[in-house]
């Protein structure tokens, strides 16, 4: 989806948190003019590991939630925590709700990001069950507060126009570069893979590691 059209779907309920000029400023920007240098990759593991895994996932994707519930924990214990791989989680924004979820997850900073992300995936059906956009924003705010983020900080994060623009532009840059068309997708040392079971994932990693 075009970045301008995508941001135009953000609801007034979200913008009322303090960014009254969000629409006009966002639509006035060309995607090529957005500075994405401040968008940090959220990563775990040894940055110097010989194998780098990039996961492209949407917080609203059921298959992504299932991967994090059934595969990611084992992957983290066996390959990330042991220093065998460097793991990067990149958000994909197929819809406005995925963007809001990412903004809440990132609101906690790199130290709390993966804990919040796990909770967002774990409770995906719950927070997406709102009857309207404002209720879904409220559900995400509740998760942020459970993670220890205060109301003022959540207000600032969810109404940050420049950050939202940069997140969407960065997503478009990286997804295009890695030819990402579905989620979850994985780029492992430059090779792209679709969703996998733990057994298949482990086999690919062991092959890359020369085990």
Protein topology:
Elements: H1 3-7, H2 12-15, H3 22-28, E1 42-45, E2 51-57, H4 62-70, H5 72-80, E3 85-91, H6 96-107, H7 109-122, H8 124-127, H9 133-146, H10 151-158, H11 161-177, E4 185-188, E5 191-193, H12 198-209
Parallel strand pairs: 2-3
Antiparallel strand pairs: 1-3, 2-4, 4-5
Enter the CATH topology name: Glutaredoxin
CATH top level label: Alpha Beta
CATH superfamily membership: Glutaredoxin
Percent of residues in helices comes to 40-55%
CATH architecture: 3-Layer(aba) Sandwich
Structural summary, described in words:
With 211 residues, this protein is α+β, with helices and mostly antiparallel strands. It has a single domain, classed as Glutaredoxin (3-Layer(aba) Sandwich). It is 55% helix and 12% strand. It contains twelve helices and five strands. The protein has helices at residues 3-7, 12-15, 22-28, 62-70, 72-80, 96-107, 109-122, 124-127, 133-146, 151-158, 161-177, 198-209; strands at residues 42-45, 51-57, 85-91, 185-188, 191-193. A five-stranded mixed beta sheet has the order 1-3-2-4-5. A hairpin with a 2-residue loop joins strand 4 and strand 5. Helix 5 runs parallel beside helix 12, helix 6 packs parallel to helix 9 and helix 6 (96-107) packs across helix 10. The radius of gyration is 17 Å and the shape is globular. It starts with a helix and ends with a helix. 38% of the residues are buried. Mean pLDDT is 87; it is low at 10-28.
């Amino acid at each position: 989806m075009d970045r301008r059209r995508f941001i135009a779907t953000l609801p007034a309920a979200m913008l009322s948190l303090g960014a009254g000029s969000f629409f006009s400023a966002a639509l006035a920007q060309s995607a090529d003019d957005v500075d994405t240098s401040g968008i940090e990759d959220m990563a775990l593991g040894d940055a110097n590991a010989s194998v780098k895994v990039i996961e492209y996932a949407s917080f609203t994707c059921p298959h992504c939630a299932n991967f994090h519930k059934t595969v990611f924990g084992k992957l983290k214990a066996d390959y990330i925590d042991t220093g065998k791989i460097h793991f990067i989680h990149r958000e994909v924004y197929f819809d406005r709700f995925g963007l809001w979820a990412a903004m809440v997850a990132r609101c906690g900073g790199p130290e709390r990001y993966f804990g919040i992300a796990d909770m967002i995936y774990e409770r995906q059906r719950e927070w997406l069950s709102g009857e309207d956009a404002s209720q879904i924003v409220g559900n995400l705010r509740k998760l942020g507060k459970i993670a220890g983020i205060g109301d003022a900080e959540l207000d600032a994060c969810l109404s940050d126009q420049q950050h939202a623009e940069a997140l969407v532009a960065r997503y478009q840059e990286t997804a295009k570069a890695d030819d990402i068309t579905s989620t979850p997708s994985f780029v492992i040392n430059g090779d792209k893979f679709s969703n996998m079971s733990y057994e298949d994932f482990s086999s690919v990693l062991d092959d890359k590691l020369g085990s």
